[in-house]
Amino acid sequence: MESMGKKRPRPRRMITPEFKAEIVELCQRGDRAVGQVAKDFDLTETAVRQWVRQAELDAGTRSDGLTSDERTELARLRSENRRLQQDVDILKRATAFFARETR
């Protein structure tokens, strides 16, 4: 019954882009399946599949998602949009405050 307990979370590791590129290359070569590569390097299969998918998007061999550059730009635009919305909110509050003061 000991196996019925919760799994301990996998420790988070810092993985370099070079390492990811090597793993993707191994998978794309076709010598081994994605699951086998993940097991050999003690990685999750889901992570390896995401790395392969992103590499294919970046290379242009796939078109069902955003490239890394597009993701970066989207994150920047969302951040800028959030800041601008805060600016508008501040200006609305200031306008309401000064409108009450002048009456």
Determine the N-to-C terminus distance.
74 Å
**Computed structural class:** mainly alpha
Roughly how much helix do the residues carry, as a percent range? 55-70%
Specify the overall morphology.
elongated
- H/E element string? HHHH
* Radius of gyration based on Cα positions: 23 Å
**Could you list the spans in which at least 5 consecutive residues all have pLDDT below 50?**
none
- Strand content of the residues, in percent? under 5%
| Count of DSSP-assigned helices | 4
Number of strands: 0
- Main beta sheet: strand number and arrangement? none
Note down, in words, how this protein is organized.
It is a single chain. The chain is mostly helical. 67% of the residues lie in helices and 0% in strands. It contains four helices and no strands. The N and C termini lie far apart (74 Å). InterPro entries: Homeodomain-like_sf, RD_transcriptional_regulator, Transposase_8.
